[in-house]
Structure formats: C-alpha cells, structure tokens
C-alpha cells in the first residue's frame, strides 16, 4: 500500500512507454544516502525508490541510491551539486536530469509540512553566461508526485 505516492500515479508511470526503472532500492541504501548527505527524501520519492531505484521515466532520468554508474545519485550529488548550488538562491538536491543535461532539483529551503520539496529546473542552456543567470532556475513542480505527472504527460 502506498502513502504519499499513490498507486494510480505509480501505475501511470509504470505504464508509460518511456519508463525503464532499475530494480527497487533497499531501505538500507536509502537510509545510508540520507545519513551521509544529511538529507531526508520526501516520502513520495522514498516510496518511489522502493519500487524502482531510478531509471528512465518520460523525458527524465531519475538517479538511484547505491548505484555505481551514470545513474548514481551519489555521483550527481558529489560532482554536480556544488556547481548547481553556486547558481542557486540556496541549497538544492539534484535527483534527476533530462537528456539534454539540465537538472531537476529539490529546493531544500521550502519543504512543506509533509516534508515534500518543490522541484526546480536548472536549464544548462543558461549556465554559461553571467547575464543569463536569472534564467537558469525555474519552478517546475510543487512536489515529487507532480514532477512525475509532468514528465509522463
């Protein structure tokens, strides 16, 4: 039984022609990532990882915990988070990207009462020139569930 990530949303993700998920993450791997990075996944994202540890969904690639390839959340957080945060208004957590190299990140300053974060979009097309900096970030979704709905619609 699902909580924050309802079964209808999960079924829509799984039925989408562009979904290719990795096997489920373990609670141990999720907990280890959270502890190492002093971060708590939104419940909906945590439930998603327990169904599929990242993978391709719609036009996005969601990163997994405990992975050792280009889909590794650890790699993207270690390698890309400092660059992303250097252009952000505050702390962010990258958790997915699109095929063009732009990132989807949680805005860690704005958790709601359920621990769900808004999703921001970092557009790499505007990341090179200082005068384009105001265009780099945009609001994408209110939370992880809305993010999933958008990337498959």
Automatic annotation (TrEMBL):
**In terms of domain of life, where is this protein from?**
Bacteria
Please give the start and end residues of each transmembrane region: none
Protein name, as recorded: SMI1 / KNR4 family protein
Q: State the species of origin.
A: Gimesia fumaroli
Q: In this protein, which residues make up the domain named Knr4/Smi1-like? A: 24-150
Entries under InterPro entries matching the protein: Knr4/Smi1-like_dom, Knr4/Smi1-like_sf
């Amino acid at each position: 039984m699902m909580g924050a990530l309802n079964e209808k949303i999960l079924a829509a993700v799984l039925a989408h022609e562009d979904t290719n998920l990795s096997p489920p993450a373990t609670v141990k791997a999720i907990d280890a990532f959270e502890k190492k990075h002093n971060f708590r996944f939104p419940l909906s994202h945590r439930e998603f990882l327990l169904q599929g540890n990242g993978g391709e969904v719609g036009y996005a690639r969601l990163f997994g915990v405990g992975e050792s390839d280009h889909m590794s959340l650890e790699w993207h957080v270690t390698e890309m988070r400092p660059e992303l945060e250097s252009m952000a208004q505050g702390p962010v957590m990258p958790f997915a990207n699109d095929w063009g190299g732009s990132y989807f990140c949680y805005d860690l300053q704005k958790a709601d009462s359920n621990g769900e974060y808004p999703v921001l979009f970092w557009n790499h097309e505007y990341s090179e020139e200082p005068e384009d900096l105001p265009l780099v970030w945009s609001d994408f979704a209110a939370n992880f569930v809305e993010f999933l709905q958008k990337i498959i619609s």
